[in-house]
Protein backbone atom coordinates (compact mmCIF):
# COMPACT_ATOMS: atom_id res chain seq x y z
CA UNK A 1 0.00 0.00 0.00
CA UNK A 2 1.47 3.33 -1.07
CA UNK A 3 1.39 6.19 1.42
CA UNK A 4 0.99 9.85 0.54
CA UNK A 5 4.57 10.86 1.21
CA UNK A 6 5.83 8.64 -1.60
CA UNK A 7 3.69 10.57 -4.09
CA UNK A 8 4.83 14.04 -3.08
CA UNK A 9 8.51 14.67 -3.79
CA UNK A 10 10.23 17.12 -1.47
CA UNK A 11 10.86 19.58 -4.29
CA UNK A 12 7.11 19.84 -4.89
CA UNK A 13 6.83 22.10 -1.87
CA UNK A 14 9.37 24.51 -3.32
CA UNK A 15 7.85 25.11 -6.75
CA UNK A 16 4.98 27.30 -7.95
CA UNK A 17 2.43 24.64 -7.00
CA UNK A 18 3.38 24.67 -3.30
CA UNK A 19 0.69 25.13 -0.70
CA UNK A 20 2.19 28.43 0.40
CA UNK A 21 2.19 30.08 -3.02
CA UNK A 22 -0.76 28.61 -4.87
CA UNK A 23 -3.49 29.73 -2.45
CA UNK A 24 -4.69 33.23 -1.73
CA UNK A 25 -4.76 34.14 1.93
CA UNK A 26 -8.52 34.69 1.96
CA UNK A 27 -9.15 30.95 1.65
CA UNK A 28 -9.70 28.83 4.75
CA UNK A 29 -7.13 26.21 5.70
CA UNK A 30 -9.45 23.38 4.65
CA UNK A 31 -9.94 25.06 1.25
CA UNK A 32 -6.17 25.34 0.88
CA UNK A 33 -5.73 21.65 1.65
CA UNK A 34 -8.58 20.76 -0.73
CA UNK A 35 -6.88 22.63 -3.56
CA UNK A 36 -3.51 21.12 -2.67
CA UNK A 37 -4.89 17.57 -2.84
CA UNK A 38 -6.93 18.38 -5.93
CA UNK A 39 -3.82 19.49 -7.79
CA UNK A 40 -2.03 16.30 -6.78
CA UNK A 41 -4.97 14.29 -8.09
CA UNK A 42 -5.38 15.98 -11.45
CA UNK A 43 -1.63 16.08 -12.07
CA UNK A 44 -1.42 12.33 -11.57
CA UNK A 45 0.91 12.61 -8.59
CA UNK A 46 -1.74 10.87 -6.52
CA UNK A 47 -2.86 7.80 -8.44
CA UNK A 48 -5.93 5.61 -8.40
CA UNK A 49 -6.02 3.24 -5.46
CA UNK A 50 -3.35 5.13 -3.55
CA UNK A 51 -3.97 5.70 0.14
CA UNK A 52 -4.27 9.24 1.50
CA UNK A 53 -2.84 9.08 5.00
CA UNK A 54 -4.19 11.82 7.29
CA UNK A 55 -1.33 11.61 9.76
CA UNK A 56 1.34 11.73 7.06
CA UNK A 57 -0.41 14.63 5.35
CA UNK A 58 -0.64 16.54 8.65
CA UNK A 59 3.10 16.09 9.19
CA UNK A 60 3.91 17.08 5.61
CA UNK A 61 1.85 20.28 5.73
CA UNK A 62 2.52 20.97 9.43
CA UNK A 63 -1.15 21.43 10.28
CA UNK A 64 -3.75 19.65 12.41
CA UNK A 65 -5.94 16.85 11.09
CA UNK A 66 -9.24 18.79 11.21
CA UNK A 67 -8.78 20.80 7.97
CA UNK A 68 -7.42 17.66 6.32
CA UNK A 69 -10.55 15.70 7.25
CA UNK A 70 -12.72 18.51 5.89
CA UNK A 71 -10.73 18.58 2.64
CA UNK A 72 -11.04 14.82 2.28
CA UNK A 73 -14.80 15.04 2.86
CA UNK A 74 -15.13 17.66 0.09
CA UNK A 75 -13.14 15.54 -2.34
CA UNK A 76 -15.24 12.50 -1.46
CA UNK A 77 -18.35 14.51 -2.32
CA UNK A 78 -16.80 15.26 -5.71
CA UNK A 79 -16.17 11.57 -6.28
CA UNK A 80 -12.38 11.84 -6.29
CA UNK A 81 -11.65 10.09 -3.00
CA UNK A 82 -13.34 7.10 -1.37
CA UNK A 83 -13.25 5.96 2.25
CA UNK A 84 -13.38 2.35 3.35
CA UNK A 85 -14.30 1.50 6.97
CA UNK A 86 -11.25 0.46 9.02
CA UNK A 87 -9.05 0.77 5.93
CA UNK A 88 -8.75 4.50 5.30
CA UNK A 89 -9.18 6.93 2.44
CA UNK A 90 -8.06 6.16 -1.10
CA UNK A 91 -7.86 7.89 -4.45
CA UNK A 92 -10.74 6.80 -6.62
CA UNK A 93 -9.72 4.37 -9.35
CA UNK A 94 -11.36 4.97 -12.71
CA UNK A 95 -12.59 1.77 -14.30
CA UNK A 96 -12.99 1.26 -18.03
CA UNK A 97 -16.74 1.74 -17.50
CA UNK A 98 -16.13 5.05 -15.71
CA UNK A 99 -14.07 6.28 -18.66
CA UNK A 100 -16.77 5.19 -21.10
CA UNK A 101 -19.38 7.08 -19.08
CA UNK A 102 -17.25 10.23 -18.83
CA UNK A 103 -16.36 10.38 -22.52
CA UNK A 104 -19.78 9.47 -23.89
CA UNK A 105 -21.37 12.18 -21.74
CA UNK A 106 -18.62 14.66 -22.59
CA UNK A 107 -19.04 14.06 -26.31
CA UNK A 108 -22.79 14.62 -26.16
CA UNK A 109 -22.38 17.68 -23.95
CA UNK A 110 -19.78 19.42 -26.10
CA UNK A 111 -21.69 18.73 -29.31
CA UNK A 112 -24.80 20.22 -27.72
CA UNK A 113 -22.76 23.22 -26.57
CA UNK A 114 -21.26 23.71 -30.03
CA UNK A 115 -24.63 23.72 -31.75
CA UNK A 116 -25.92 26.28 -29.27
CA UNK A 117 -22.78 28.40 -29.61
CA UNK A 118 -22.60 28.33 -33.42
CA UNK A 119 -25.12 31.14 -34.14
CA UNK A 120 -23.28 33.37 -31.65
CA UNK A 121 -19.72 32.73 -32.86
CA UNK A 122 -17.56 35.80 -33.42
CA UNK A 123 -14.03 36.29 -34.66
CA UNK A 124 -13.12 37.35 -31.13
CA UNK A 125 -14.42 34.13 -29.56
CA UNK A 126 -12.51 32.02 -32.11
CA UNK A 127 -9.35 34.06 -31.49
CA UNK A 128 -9.83 33.46 -27.77
CA UNK A 129 -9.88 29.69 -28.32
CA UNK A 130 -6.80 29.95 -30.54
CA UNK A 131 -5.01 31.91 -27.82
CA UNK A 132 -5.69 29.09 -25.36
CA UNK A 133 -4.11 26.60 -27.78
CA UNK A 134 -1.08 28.88 -28.05
CA UNK A 135 -0.87 28.91 -24.25
CA UNK A 136 -1.03 25.11 -24.30
CA UNK A 137 1.87 25.00 -26.74
CA UNK A 138 3.90 27.40 -24.60
CA UNK A 139 3.28 25.23 -21.54
CA UNK A 140 4.25 22.13 -23.52
CA UNK A 141 7.52 23.69 -24.71
CA UNK A 142 8.33 24.65 -21.13
CA UNK A 143 7.59 21.11 -19.95
CA UNK A 144 4.80 22.35 -17.66
CA UNK A 145 2.46 19.40 -17.87
CA UNK A 146 0.04 20.57 -15.20
CA UNK A 147 -0.35 23.97 -16.83
CA UNK A 148 -0.95 22.25 -20.16
CA UNK A 149 -3.72 20.15 -18.59
CA UNK A 150 -5.30 23.26 -17.09
CA UNK A 151 -5.24 25.09 -20.43
CA UNK A 152 -6.66 22.01 -22.15
CA UNK A 153 -9.60 21.87 -19.78
CA UNK A 154 -10.06 25.65 -20.15
CA UNK A 155 -10.35 25.20 -23.92
CA UNK A 156 -13.22 22.74 -23.62
CA UNK A 157 -14.82 24.67 -20.79
CA UNK A 158 -14.80 27.79 -22.97
CA UNK A 159 -16.61 25.90 -25.72
CA UNK A 160 -19.38 25.14 -23.22
CA UNK A 161 -19.41 28.74 -22.00
CA UNK A 162 -19.87 30.01 -25.56
CA UNK A 163 -23.20 28.18 -25.64
CA UNK A 164 -24.55 30.73 -23.17
CA UNK A 165 -26.61 27.94 -21.58
CA UNK A 166 -26.21 27.90 -17.79
CA UNK A 167 -27.28 24.24 -17.56
CA UNK A 168 -24.65 23.22 -20.12
CA UNK A 169 -21.98 25.13 -18.22
CA UNK A 170 -23.14 23.59 -14.94
CA UNK A 171 -23.11 20.08 -16.41
CA UNK A 172 -19.52 20.56 -17.57
CA UNK A 173 -18.57 21.90 -14.14
CA UNK A 174 -20.06 18.81 -12.49
CA UNK A 175 -17.67 16.50 -14.35
CA UNK A 176 -14.77 18.99 -14.50
CA UNK A 177 -12.50 16.99 -12.20
CA UNK A 178 -13.16 13.67 -13.93
CA UNK A 179 -12.48 15.26 -17.32
CA UNK A 180 -9.28 16.86 -16.04
CA UNK A 181 -7.98 13.57 -14.68
CA UNK A 182 -8.90 11.83 -17.93
CA UNK A 183 -7.06 14.54 -19.91
CA UNK A 184 -3.98 13.91 -17.77
CA UNK A 185 -4.23 10.22 -18.68
CA UNK A 186 -4.64 11.07 -22.37
CA UNK A 187 -1.63 13.36 -22.53
CA UNK A 188 0.54 10.55 -21.20
CA UNK A 189 -0.44 8.61 -24.35
CA UNK A 190 1.03 11.19 -26.76
CA UNK A 191 4.61 11.05 -27.99
CA UNK A 192 5.20 14.50 -26.50
CA UNK A 193 3.43 17.33 -24.70
CA UNK A 194 3.81 19.41 -27.86
CA UNK A 195 1.78 16.84 -29.80
CA UNK A 196 -0.94 16.91 -27.14
CA UNK A 197 -1.20 20.70 -27.50
CA UNK A 198 -1.07 20.88 -31.30
CA UNK A 199 -3.83 18.25 -31.51
CA UNK A 200 -6.27 21.14 -30.92
CA UNK A 201 -5.41 23.15 -34.05
CA UNK A 202 -7.75 21.20 -36.36
CA UNK A 203 -10.60 22.35 -34.12
CA UNK A 204 -9.53 25.98 -34.54
CA UNK A 205 -9.32 25.52 -38.31
CA UNK A 206 -12.84 24.11 -38.27
CA UNK A 207 -14.10 27.07 -36.24
CA UNK A 208 -12.55 29.48 -38.74
CA UNK A 209 -14.33 27.72 -41.59
CA UNK A 210 -17.66 28.75 -40.00
CA UNK A 211 -19.04 25.36 -41.05
CA UNK A 212 -21.16 24.01 -38.20
CA UNK A 213 -20.92 20.35 -39.19
CA UNK A 214 -17.16 20.60 -39.69
CA UNK A 215 -16.75 22.13 -36.22
CA UNK A 216 -18.87 19.43 -34.58
CA UNK A 217 -16.99 16.71 -36.48
CA UNK A 218 -13.59 18.14 -35.47
CA UNK A 219 -14.47 18.24 -31.78
CA UNK A 220 -16.08 14.80 -31.95
CA UNK A 221 -12.97 13.38 -33.61
CA UNK A 222 -10.74 15.04 -31.00
CA UNK A 223 -12.73 13.58 -28.10
CA UNK A 224 -12.99 10.20 -29.81
CA UNK A 225 -9.21 10.14 -30.28
CA UNK A 226 -8.72 10.91 -26.58
CA UNK A 227 -11.20 8.20 -25.71
CA UNK A 228 -9.31 5.64 -27.80
CA UNK A 229 -5.97 6.64 -26.27
CA UNK A 230 -7.32 6.02 -22.77
CA UNK A 231 -8.88 2.74 -23.85
CA UNK A 232 -5.42 1.72 -25.03
CA UNK A 233 -4.05 2.58 -21.59
CA UNK A 234 -6.58 0.25 -19.97
CA UNK A 235 -5.72 -2.58 -22.34
CA UNK A 236 -1.93 -2.29 -21.81
Summarize the topology.
Layout: H1 19-22, H2 29-42, E1 51-52, H3 54-61, H4 65-77, E2 81-84, E3 88-91, H5 96-117, H6 123-141, H7 145-162, H8 166-174, H9 176-187, H10 193-198, H11 201-209, H12 212-235
Antiparallel strand pairs: 1-3, 2-3
How does this model look, in words?
This protein has 236 residues and is mainly alpha-helical. The protein folds into two domains: 29-91, Arc Repressor Mutant, subunit A (Orthogonal Bundle); 96-233, Up-down Bundle (Four Helix Bundle (Hemerythrin (Met), subunit A)), CATH 1.20.120. It is 67% helix and 4% strand. The protein is built from twelve helices and three strands, in the order H-H-E-H-H-E-E-H-H-H-H-H-H-H-H. The chain has helices spanning 19-22, 29-42, 54-61, 65-77, 96-117, 123-141, 145-162, 166-174, 176-187, 193-198, 201-209, 212-235; strands spanning 51-52, 81-84, 88-91. A hairpin with a 3-residue loop joins strand 2 and strand 3. Helix 5 crosses helix 7 and helix 6 runs antiparallel to helix 7 (145-162). The two termini are 22 Å apart.
Amino acid sequence: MVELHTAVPSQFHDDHDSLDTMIVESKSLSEQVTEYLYKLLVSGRLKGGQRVNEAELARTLKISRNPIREAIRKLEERGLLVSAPRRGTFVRSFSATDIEDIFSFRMALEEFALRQAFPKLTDASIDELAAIVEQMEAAARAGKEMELVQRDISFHQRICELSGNTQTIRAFSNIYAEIQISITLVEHRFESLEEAASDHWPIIEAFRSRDEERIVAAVREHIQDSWLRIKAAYSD
